[in-house]
Structure formats: C-alpha cells, structure tokens
Amino acid sequence: MNADLIIFNGSVFTADDANSEADSVVVKGNKIVFVGPFETAKTYQNPDTKMIDAAGKTVMPGFIDTHFHVLWGSRSLASAQLIECKNLDDLKGCLLDWAEAHPNREWVMGNGMSYAVPSADIDLNRHHLDAIIADRPVILFSFDMHTVWLNTLGLEKTGLLNGHPPLPGDADVVMGDDGLATGALVEPAAYNLAVEQLPEQTAAEKLDELKNGMAYIASHGITTVHDMACNAEDMQVYGALHEQGGLTARIYANQLIEPEHKVADIQRLAVPLRDKYNSDLLRVGFIKFFIDGVYESFSAVTLNGYPGRPDHHGEPIFSADHFAQLAAEADRLGFQIAVHACGDGGVQLVLNGYESVIKQNGRRDSRHRVEHIEMVSQADIGRFKELGVIASMQPLHAPIEAGDSDVWVSRVAEEEWDMAFAWRSIRDAGVHICFGSDWPVVPLNPFLSIHAALNRKPWKPGHNSHNQTLTETLISYTRDAAFVEFSETKKGQLKAGMLADIAILSDNIFEVDKDKIATMSIDLTIMNGNIVFQKNR
Predict the structure, then answer these.
(1) How far is 76 from 190, CA to CA, in rounded Å?
(2) Is residue 537 predicted with pLDDT exceeding 60?
(3) pLDDT tens for residues 75-129?
(4) Burial class (CB in 10 A: 0-12, 13-18, 19+), 231
(5) HSE of 509, CA atoms in CB hemisphere, 13 A
(6) What is the mean pLDDT of residues 259-274?
(7) CA distances to 1, 49, 204, 284 from 42, in Å
(8) What are 324-369's pLDDT values in tens digits?
(9) Does 479 score more than 60 pLDDT?
(10) Minimal CA–CA distance to 111: which of 228, 16, 195?
(11) For 32-55, what is each residue's pLDDT tens digit?
C-alpha cells in the first residue's frame, strides 16, 4: 500500500496501550494505516508520499475538546477580547481600541469579562461603562456567559433601563437603589432580552465568522469539538460550511432543551437534526440542559448555601420532576444527555434525574454526562460510576490557588473547598472523566488546560490538590473523550484503522517541565488526513 503521508522521527503518544512505543505514523486517505518504527513505515513510501519529520517532538491524536461553543466562540473573535482585563484601566483600553477599529459597528461588544473588575467587592455597573463610552451602546459578556453588562445607552436601546418583570430561576435584570437597572443582566433569560435587540447577522456573516473560528481551532491542534447549546439555526451554518468542504474540525452537536419545552418537543426538535446530520464530520447525538447557573453570580444550585447568604441555595432552572420527564424521553429516543450543573445541589439533582431515567427506561449504554461539576458532595461521587455517568470537566475553570483574584473561591465556605473541582477524587472513584475548555468562557488552548490540571495547589493545608498526571490528562483529551461520543473505535488513538486526526506539538511534552507546558504550541494539525494547520513549514 502506498502512503499519502508519513510522519517520522517523532515521539509518538499513541494513547493505545497495546502499542505505546512508536516513532512513525503512516496515513492513507483519511485513515491511519500503520503506527510503529520507521523501518516499517518507510516501506509505505512512494514518490508522491509527503514526508514530515517530527524532529523528536510529540506526535499524538488530535485534541478532542468535550465542552465547546463553536459559533459563540467564533463570533467572540470579532469582539473586544477582555479575558486579560484586570481593572477598569485595562477595560478602558480594550474597549476604546476596539471602538476606534470598528467605527461602523453600532454596538461596542466585548467578550471574556471577569467578575473581579472593578474588584472582587465592587460589581461592574453602567456608570463604569458610561465613563468609558457613553455615546455608543456597549454590551459585555462575562467569561462564563452567565452575566451581561450594558451601559446606559445600551439599556435604553433594549428597553431595560427601568427594569423588567420577574424572570424564572435566578435570572435577573439587576436594579439599583436609584430605581434604574445597574446594567447587569444575570443568566440567559435576562440577557437574551438585550441580545435579541442586537443587529441581526446575515448568513454570510455567520459563515465568515465560523471560517475564522475553524482556522483558530485548527491552530491549537483540536480536531473534534463537542458543541454545546445548539439548535437548528446553528446546524444550518455548520451544514453550509460542511457542504463547502470547510470544516477543519469535527463537530459533535446537540439540541438545547429549555424550561418552556414539553416532552413532545424532544422528538419534534432533536430527531430531525439527528437524522439530517450524521456524518463523521458533523453529527447531532445528544440533548443539552442547563440545570443551574454559576457560583460567580450566586446562581449555582448548592446544598449548603453561600458564605454570608446561607439561606440562598440558587434556584434550579428545571424542576426535578420536569427534568426527569424530559430526560426520560431523550433517553427513550436513544439520545445521550449532557447537563450543565456547577453546584453540588445541581449535580445531585441531575444524578437523581438519571437514576429516575434508569428506573423508567432500564439501563443501557447511555453515557449520559454532567458538565462542569465545580462542587460535588462526597456522597454523590460514587453515584457517577454506579449510574454510568461521565464527568465532563474543564481544568482551566479552577483557580490554581485560593489566593487567585478569581472571585469563585469566595462563593464557597473554606471547609468545603476540598470538594471543589474534585478531579482526583472523581477519577480515583473509577469515574470516566473527559476534559475540555468551554471556549470562549476560557481560552481553547489545550496547553493552558493541561498546565492547570498538572499544577493546581491545595487551597488549604491538608486539602487535595486534585492534580492529574500528564498521561491521565492527555487520555482525557483523546481516547477517553472519543469514548464519550461513542467514537472510541474511530478516533482518539493513533492506531491502524483510526481516522487520521493528528497533532504534532512544538516540543516533546513528556520532557517539558510541567510548569512550562502552558508555553507550548502546535506545529502541525491533521484532520481527516488533511493538513489543516502548519506552522513554520
């Protein structure tokens, strides 16, 4: 057999326990046909074979990011990037630079806003934004997409300056002592009131943003993403790019189900999408729910309340009964289920729902998931394995140390910190863990997440750091991530017969100091046998 491509002289991380030592990978079409020594690999060479010298660097399966927002992230690339803003001066500089560079945009838009600006004790409000830009409407999205801030003109244009009738759950148009909105809109039910007033994008604009997003994703060695919170309109954009041959990362997508949906809506909305999009490049296979919000905005559902607010436990977005009914129908129809649950109370509610589903429908290989799990009770950890539930977690969400500027640590009592982002406790209980970023909530760069998984410090003496080993982390980003989407026989390993999704790193990751891994990058990305990103070659 003649090869299209041979990677040689590499330090190959196969993620295949049966063949863990190799220096070469051979590709024909969109499949891997051989992994092993170069002496054998070179027998596949012909005059047209592309030869890639990995120069001793790590060659590994392409990263599979199991929690991602493709369109939102792609759109955020066209907005002011606020993830590095630490204070109001930083914010001012970012917004003014973006506004000057985009004089024809009606709205000034920013993404990645921290809750620690102006400070952990002072909440951002419209007056802070008015002092920066008052003559154009401003809308800023928090890094976790659970809060949006508007300046006064933005509130006026969206009709929210004087508030809004009560909203479900913890959603809120926050009001000030002056009887007017502060500018903070908490949770989607509130901020969508503003988003709906933004200028509508054309199909061409969405497609252009998606193309930019695809290039950005490929440049980070990511070859598959699990896209969260999708609908038919989003899938049309993905489908259009797929038809053009422009998908450079595989998309495993879902249908988002909201509180207003009825049981019959699962079949009405999700089944047609699953039937229409069912290829190795673009596939709908799961249902997504949000059961709670986030700790930063006091909207995560907790078991023990919040420090200083012990009677506030957060309000579930779905009632327990409603969620169980919808989940049972999704399971009956053969869908995987993924549920956003940050708080330990939210996690427990979801596990209770999954237990009810098994009692109603019987046990099957469902691979249902809980997303985030920022807090979990010790008693519930064992239930993950018992119920066959996957823990889908994002290492970069966790503060490295309790003293970080992140406001998260102030939302949980110190005596509970040991159960925060409890990766080690969950893994050691035999639970299947997959990793992802939640881009654009945090950067999609896998090396930042790997660094976070390896370098976290105990938040208190005697507490668990919950650190992972490098091999565990890479497996959670490759082989175990493929298992989550029922694709373990197709990808996630460098193995003959697998899809040719491959990343070549900037160094041998196993020889880099663990505190330097964040500085690594991608040399080359191959998806479906095609080179989709190449640096300095």
Answers:
(1) 20
(2) no
(3) 889 899 998 899 999 999 999 999 999 999 999 999 889 898 998 789 999 999 9
(4) middle
(5) 26
(6) 97
(7) 11, 10, 45, 39
(8) 999 999 999 999 999 999 999 999 999 999 999 999 999 999 999 9
(9) yes
(10) 195
(11) 999 999 999 999 999 999 999 999
Spatial contact of 266 and 249, defined as CB atoms under 8 Å apart: no
Name the residue with tokens 């008693």: 379
User: What is the layout of strands, in order, in the sheet containing 369-372?
Assistant: 63-68, 222-227, 250-256, 282-290, 336-341, 369-372, 390-393, 433-435
Query: Which residues on adjacent β-strands are paired with residue 278?
Result: 283
Position 497, amino acid: G
pTM: predicted TM-score of the whole model, two decimal places: 0.89
Q: What is the pLDDT of residue 76?
A: 87
DSSP per position, 185-223: EESHHHHHHHHTTSPPPPHHHHHHHHHHHHHHHHTTTEE
- Measured distance CA(168)–CA(395) in Å, rounded: 30
Q: Which residues contact 408 (CB under 8 A, 6 or more apart)?
A: 295, 296, 374, 399
The H-or-E segment that residue 329 falls in is helix 320-332
**Residues 140-157: tens digit of each pLDDT:** 999 877 899 999 999 999
Beta strands at 24-28 and 31-36: parallel, antiparallel or unpaired: antiparallel
Edge-to-edge strand order for the sheet containing 181-186? Answer: 80-81, 108-113, 138-142, 147-150, 181-186, 172-175
- Say yes or no to pLDDT of 536 above 80: no
Instruction: Please name the residues in contact with 175: beta carbons below 8 A apart, sequence gap of 6 or more.
Output: 163, 181, 182
Calculate the CA 493 to chain-centre distance: 21
**For 370-373, which contacts have Cβ atoms below 8 Å and span 24 or more sequence positions?**
370/338, 370/339, 370/341, 371/67, 371/228, 371/338, 371/339, 371/340, 371/341, 372/67, 372/340, 372/341, 372/342, 372/397, 372/438, 373/341, 373/342, 373/347, 373/421, 373/422, 373/426
Is residue 178 left, alpha or beta, with left meaning phi > 0 and alpha meaning psi from -120 to 50? alpha
Region 452-466: mean pLDDT is 96
The whole-angstrom separation of Cα 443 and Cα 447 is 10
C-alpha–C-alpha distance, residues 237 and 253, integer Å: 12
In the numeric block, which tokens belong to residue 435? Answer: 């990793």
User: What is d(CA 199, CA 109) in angstroms, rounded to the nearest whole number?
Assistant: 12
The SS3 call for residue 424 is: helix
What confidence tens digit (pLDDT) does each residue in 231-242 have? 999 999 999 999
* 87: Cβ contacts below 8 Å, ≥ 6 apart: 117, 118
